[in-house]
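Summary for the steering committee. One of the milestones for this cycle was to obtain a three-dimensional model of the protein with iron/sulfur cluster bound, which we needed before selecting residues for the alanine scan. The sequence and ligand used are listed below.
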Amino acid sequence: MIEEVGTSTDGDLIINIGPQHPSTHGVLHLVVTLNGETVKKVEPHLGYIHRSIEKMCESLSYRQFIYVTSRMDYLSSHINNLGCAHAVEKGLQVEIPERAQVIRVLMSELTRLASHQLWWGAMAMDIGAITPFFHAFREREMINDIMEETCGARLTMNYMVPGGVMYDLHPDFQKKVKEFVQFFRSKFDEYDELLTGNVIFQARTKNVGIISKEDAISYGCTGPVARAAGVSCDVRKLFPYDVYGKLQFDEVLMEAGDSFARYQVRMGEMRQSLSIIDQLIDNIPEGEFQAKTKAVLKLPKGEYYSIVETARGELGVYIISEGGMTPYRIKFRSPGFSNLSALDHMARGSKIGDLVAIMGTLDLVIPDIDR
Amino acid sequence: MSFIKEYIRTVYRAVSSLLKGMKLTGYYFTHHKEIITQNYPENRDTLNLPERFRGEVVLTHNEDNEHRCTGCTACELACPNGTIKIITQFDVNEEGKKKKALNTFIYHLELCTMCNLCIVACPTDAIKMAQNFEHSVYDRSKLTKTLNAPGSKLMEGVE
Ligand code: SF4
Ligand code: SF4
């Protein structure tokens, strides 16, 4: 784990965790200042997986740049694509058919479920439990199969296009999703039995990595990290897009702000996602799945901004157009970056062993942070 | 005394919560029917990939070695990575009119991200995604493919 050891002037130990370390879920590099076993400071160093996605997008047309964003937060690729499609649609002023909107929401929620399942497994592994990982992947596989059938890919789908979705739903889609929802509901008890009720798990997450409501706001945390501290920030509720405004679902809020609260928020969100899917799966309206758009898209001169709620928080897509075929500038506001910036605050004073557990509950996807 | 009692109680609680989790592990260990992993590559013959699965771009040919590509280069323009290169030629038909036609359809599999934009862009449905996903080769140059079969020509009636 220790790749380079140094001491600071006052005798503290400085160690590097990562960038090639299994516990950091990708190429995250943390420079940790330790006093004995106590964490004094955590400094994330980024740049190891920077692909200059924003710059790349500037040379691609409005249809082409969307696929690149699947490679940011690859676990919520549908939702990333959706955010970009929204921004382009704002410029084009097109009306999205009802059917496309419902499909988009269904896909977003399935993505959220898949992402939270993977997080659940990976976080358990960070804490030292291997079995949950395999359980989570078993359920996630069903979602991947559904995606594969309708979208043609399992991870980087590129299914949301400006104006709607790329293809209509696969004929088996409804049946498969219902099967999955039923199966997954029954597995929730297993999840609780395996992990939630486990004494060791609770001891390692309760009162660990606490962030207060005020701090969560000032660090710009969004998503489950902020909601665990009591900040109401669900974009689906506050700025509803597509058909979210018509749906019944709760924003899961906790007060404690510790690792266990973040865990509970995500578990609660999975249940909410299931209930959203339940409401929509039998009510997919007939009609077009894509609005008619021109072959070459040109946005009028101006600025366009859209936000969506990914599995990790608020993703903002900001496009400046000069009226041409390609954007003049694109900026992504990724949720992972702000959530990571709060890590130092959360981890100070805790033990080094807990650092990895705290990181696990932040649900970091490094390519999202380091675009 | 109460300290020891509390200690024993904690240990009991911890062990029982562990056993509860282990019970589930044991259940799956003894119930082989519920195992869902697949024996790839042994099950290659029975592997069923969905029709829309994006494995690689192919140009479809019928039995008479005819394809539907008119050489309009819409796919080349739609592709974000320059994966497709369409080389066209001018055919002269019976009336002496020049007509653009496909000469070579070059496809760089090593650059393709399977985004499907080319398939959507094609006005004549000439190309589609194939399900083959085992692309590893020993030489990178083998990944650059010519998709139109030798001697193939444009299907009758496709404009
Ligand atoms: S699938 Fe995408 S990357 Fe591949 S050739 Fe088609 S447009 Fe290009
Ligand atoms: S494959 Fe389709 S889009 Fe590409 S050149 Fe041929 S006809 Fe045009």
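Key point for the committee: DSSP finds 15 helices and nine strands in chain A.
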